[in-house]
Amino acid sequence: MDRPEVSAAICIKSSHSCDNGGNCVEIAPGFAGVVPVRDSKRPDGPALFVGLAAWSAFAAALR
Q: Between 20 and 30 A from 43 (CA), which of 6, 8, 49, 53?
């Protein structure tokens, strides 16, 4: 699988996240077919690429 470059992407984190250095994840919207997810404490670290269907199911389960 060809993985898109995420390091230059604009990532967002949940409005439920806080700025106290806790365990937060960020996503990079706008990639075709996948949602890149990374650790907000390691923006230069690796990203996990999740398929859109799996991400939608995950987000729905959190609601």
A: 53
For 32, the token pair is: 């075709």
The token pair at 55 is 């991400």
29-58 residue pLDDT tens: 888 899 999 888 887 888 889 999 999 999
As beta bridge partners, residue 55 has none
Expressed in angstroms, the distance from the first to the final Cα of the chain is: 30
pLDDT score of 52:
93
Question: Of 15, 58, 9, whose CA–CA distance to 38 is shortest?
Answer: 9
> CA 39, 41, 17, 48: dihedral to nearest 10 degrees?
-10
